[in-house]
Amino acid sequence: MSVVPAEMLAGSVLPPAEHVEGLEGPESAGGAAELGPRARLWPSLAAVYRAQLSRARVARIPLLFVATFQSIGIMIMMRGVVDGGAEARAVVAGSTVLVVAFVALNLLAQYFGQLRASGGLDHYATLPVPPAAVVLGAAAAYASFTVPGTVVTAVFGCLLFGLPLAHLWVLAAVVPLAGVALAGLGAAFGLLAPRPELATLLGQLGMSAALLLGVLPADRMPAVVRYARDLLPSTYGVEAFARTFGAHPDWMAVLGDLAVCAGVGVASLALAAWAYRRAAVR
Hints:
By secondary structure, the protein is mainly alpha-helical. It is 70% helix and 0% strand. It has helices at residues 26-29, 41-56, 60-78, 85-118, 121-125, 131-144, 147-161, 171-192, 196-215, 223-231, 234-243, 251-280. The radius of gyration is 25 Å and the shape is elongated. The chain starts with 25 loop residues before the first helix and ends with a helix. The relative contact order is 0.14.
């Protein structure tokens, strides 16, 4: 094998470093190489969302039917013991948000638990993507397939209990905010659990808590259980949606519940980002 100098190749003569545009020598750069800009959250989130969306399409039909039929079945069962009023509002609002909780708590805990156990988390750790973008991108991809089920559940519940349909547009704020708050917890469960089986268990326990504390009317719960209900992130989304069924909704109270839900969402995302970094370096 012969070695040909690069200078002898046609069109391959390399100019000195100081004559190349954008390439500076150590004298002008101070001996330190300049790094590229850090990846921003929203472009990274969009990229992760598109990638996860293409992978989650296989499971879209089971997600749609299981999450929707579960909530509809609960409302039909509760119809035999709840006639109307504030209790009916709580049942419909809680069952609607439960569709999101099924994905955000149960499925995300399983997904990140399996991703960590299989070593797939190392792939994301090598990418210049913020941890919050990974969590939110995966959550948004799975939750996208439950949006039709959420609307169907809300409409069916309103017709079943005779509630007004005029303010269903509030779901456009309730579903994302409650989903973010619950998705952060679900991702943290999967990333902190030492085994995927334990992550699945934690996700199912979280979804059971959302079911019992979110769907059942708060007036019939003991005082201790009410305090536990206040600690559940989805509670404030349920309360905000339930308030809109009244004849004259208190919109300031609705905005207050949504603000609390957003604050809890930021805290849960911070927890998930910390768990992501902790799991990625191990």
